[in-house]
Specification:
The protein is mainly alpha-helical and 427 residues long. 48% of the residues are buried. The longest helix has 33 residues, at 15-47. The N and C termini lie far apart (45 Å). The radius of gyration is 22 Å and the shape is globular. The chain has two domains: 13-213, Growth Hormone, Chain: A (Up-down Bundle), CATH 1.20.1250.20; 222-421, MFS general substrate transporter like domains (Growth Hormone, Chain: A, Up-down Bundle). The protein has 18 helices and no strands.
């Protein structure tokens, strides 16, 4: 065995510990995010808010989550990922805890405003961390691993919230648990995370491996006013704009719908929600695998992404039947299928961004696109709240029909804007 081979075999693999920490933070983000959706039927009776007022609460979160990308990248660059993400977690931890003190929809809206600011930092900081700790050839895989926390967070929330309320007989303790989870993460992060060249857990061999391929190590800063001139930017932004609000609908109104339609109490929500989110997780993995398989078979990126997204869009269509079906298992199955299709779409639209743009500016494109889709989510939150406030449970017909056709419309718009998904040329 020569020296080079021996060195490679002896290198540490500490970068995967960092992925585990990012997975943990992403789990907390989605645990916090879905709490309100699960507790909504319970809180409606306890707080006494109307459907329209609940729409305002959802709007508040999406407002600051849309504003966050405008400045959060600058803050993270100035402070570095260690302290930038630490600050964000402190902000969202206390924002989550402040929900426990809310006694009106206005109190919840204020708490959600702060939560959106803090949580808007998680993905930019996580992507930057992956760029620091992984060579380009491993980054996509690392991002896929930590992003799995988004589904685990929702599953944990569905399982743990009924248990917490059963033992403590108070919904406020759910937000206390969120603080504990965030505080535990913060301690682990500050102990175990430093830049790879400063970490005592990363040896020379692993550092050389991380820095061995210097491609794409420095992010190019490109202003949004320049990005919006490229039609490829709008492929990604509109692809998210027509579909992300659908996902927010499932997150924030899914439990409310099951409660209103089938009179499901909080303790009975765990199983259907776990089914929905586990199936959704599988959908994201499958959607990515299908388009990758087509590429390996020699198909173009244009064909592979669009065919996969077309299949996804067709799988969503049956969800329009949900408001008219009297069987809860069938409704849960259709929502789970639609949620899985969304995750498949999401996996591919993120990949389209890397197909169309140099890797160094994909983060800027995703940031702009997230703001666009969050603004759309703000509008749909108000419309859904108004529809339910005016029509009661019949108002659910509107969002489910929109959810059913949003993906086909989005794919049509994408194809009109970019028939061949031709990559952009940026100096």
């Amino acid at each position: 065995m020569n020296f080079q081979t021996k060195s490679i075999l002896q290198k540490t693999n500490y970068r995967w510990v960092i992925v585990a920490l990012l997975f943990y933070s992403t789990t907390i983000v989605y645990f916090d995010r879905v709490i309100l959706g699960i507790l909504a039927p319970f809180l409606s009776a306890d707080i006494g808010w109307s459907e329209q007022e609940y729409g305002y609460v959802v709007f508040a979160f999406q407002l600051t989550y849309a504003i966050g990308p405008l400045f959060i990248g600058y803050v993270i660059d100035r402070l570095g990922t260690r302290w930038g993400l630490s600050l964000a977690v402190v902000v969202w931890a206390f924002a989550s805890l402040s929900h426990a003190a809310a006694r009106s929809w206005i109190g919840f809206a204020i708490a959600r405003l702060t939560l959106g600011i803090g949580q808007s930092a998680n993905f930019p900081a996580s992507i930057k961390t992956v760029a620091e700790y992984f060579p380009p050839k491993e980054r996509a895989y690392a991002v896929g691993l930590f992003n799995g926390g988004s589904n685990i967070g929702q599953v944990l929330a569905a399982l743990m919230i009924p248990v917490i309320i059963y033992f403590f007989v108070s919904w406020q303790y759910v937000f206390v648990l969120s603080l504990v989870l965030s505080g535990t993460w913060l301690v682990l992060w500050l102990i175990f995370f430093r830049a790879p060249n400063e970490s005592r857990f990363v040896n020379k061999q692993e550092l050389e491996y991380i820095q061995g391929d210097t491609e794409d190590l420095n992010k190019v800063k490109i202003p949004w006013k320049k990005l919006i001139k490229y039609r490829q930017t709008w492929v990604v932004a509109l692809g998210k704009m027509f579909t992300d609000p659908v996902w927010y609908f499932y997150l924030f109104w899914g439990a409310k719908f099951l409660n209103a339609r089938f009179d499901v109490e909080l303790s009975g929500l765990a199983l259907p929600l776990v089914v929905i989110y586990v199936v959704a997780w599988g959908g994201g993995i499958t959607g990515g695998a299908v388009s990758s398989f087509l590429l390996k078979k020699g198909k173009s990126a244009n064909f592979s992404r669009k065919v996969t997204m077309l299949g996804t869009a067709l799988l969503v269509l049956p969800v329009m039947l949900v408001p008219f079906i009297n069987s809860m298992p069938v409704c849960v199955g259709l929502i789970a299928l639609a949620a899985a299709a969304h995750n498949s779409w999401s996996a591919n639209i993120f990949t389209v961004a890397s197909d169309l743009f140099p890797k160094k500016i994909v983060g800027s494109v995703i940031g702009f696109s997230t703001t666009v889709s969050s603004i759309a989510g703000m509008g749909t939150a108000l419309l859904i709240g108004f529809a339910l406030n005016e029509a009661g449970t019949e108002g659910y017909v509107f969002p489910f029909v929109i959810a059913a056709f949003g993906y086909l419309i989005g794919l049509l718009v994408i194809h009109v804007i970019s028939p061949k998904l031709k990559p952009v040329s940026i100096d």
